[in-house]
Amino acid sequence: QIENGVNTGIRCTKIGDVYATSGTSANSWVCGSGSYFKSPQTVETRSNVSNNRTDLLGIGTEIAVSLHLKKYEDILSIELPIFLDPTLLEIKSVVFDNGFGPYWNYNKDLKRLVLLQWNQNPLHLESGTIATIHLVAKSTNFDINKAIKFDPNRNVEISNRNMELANATVGIVVENIESNGLDARILQSFAGSILETNVKEDTEAEIRIVNVQGQNLESMKVYLNKGNNRITLPTDHQVKGIKILNLSSKMKSTTLKYID
After folding, report:
1. 3-class DSSP state for residue 218?
2. By the 8 A CB rule, do 18 and 157 touch?
3. What is the spatial distance between Cα 225 and Cα 204, in angstroms, rounded to a whole number?
């Protein structure tokens, strides 16, 4: 029951993934016999990774992903279901801003992170960043835009003071990708294959190259200076095809695949 934009007769419950500290279940709005929303979700998604080296994503890389809200009216409730691949990313922390203070939970089986906030009176949310998800990469050279995105199997739900679909949009933005110390990629040139690395400090490293059968083709120790380094990889004209390079140092280890 809505009176002057305030729900005075709450007969709503939530069911599913998110649990409050009291143990109340919370994930899918149910009021009376049906859901609040019959309209299609209103959501915009975008990434801002043009200035980041997504090709240098590796195990341990730290990633900051923000949720940006654009609203044109008061918001009473908001539910944001986000797909997050647990084989590629691990949640380090979730930080809220701008009046957003939801319950949140990550369900590994569904690969779904749900952020949920509801109030009797309109939430004091302003347009802008409402949350930042700090992540750690668990794999190398993957597409960050596919590893975290709005869950295609569930609607983004934002309601106004009349408990109707609010005139608002929310977007996922990859803000920053930062290595934990050892980044690497392989470049191809007329002279052959070149290993490019970026390290935070001077370090010794070992390069091991094998074929797809795991047979050792080359091993060498190298010294990497702080910052960018380029190393021309040895070429064996008798062994062509796909090769796998492992670069390891005291910082971490990374594996790259290339064709020689």
Report:
1. strand
2. no
3. 9
Tokens of 165: 């679909």
Q: Is the dihedral of CA 114, 118, 124, 127 positive or negative?
A: positive
Q: Which one-letter amino acid corresponds to residue 207?
A: I
Q: Which amino acid is at 146?
A: K
Query: 145-172 b/e with 16+ CB inside 10 Å = b?
Result: eebbbbbeebbbbbbbbebebbebbbbb
Q: How many CB atoms lie within 10 A of CB 253?
A: 16
- Beta carbons within 8 Å of 155's beta carbon, 6+ residues apart: 37, 40, 41, 81
The reply to whether the predicted model has a pTM over 0.70 is no
Amino acid at residue number 102: P
Starting at the earlier edge strand, list the strands of the sheet with 182-189.
Answer: 182-189, 192-199, 227-232
The tokens describing 253, both together, are 């280890």
> Which amino acid appears at position 29 of this protein?
W
Q: What is the dihedral of CA 60, 222, 247, 65, to 10 degrees?
A: 30
pLDDT in tens, 149-206: 888 888 788 888 777 778 888 888 888 777 666 778 888 888 789 998 878 788 899 9
3-state DSSP assignment of residue 88: coil
Give the confidence band of 54 by pLDDT, cuts at 50, 70, 90: low
As a whole number of angstroms, the distance between CA 159 and CA 7 comes to 12
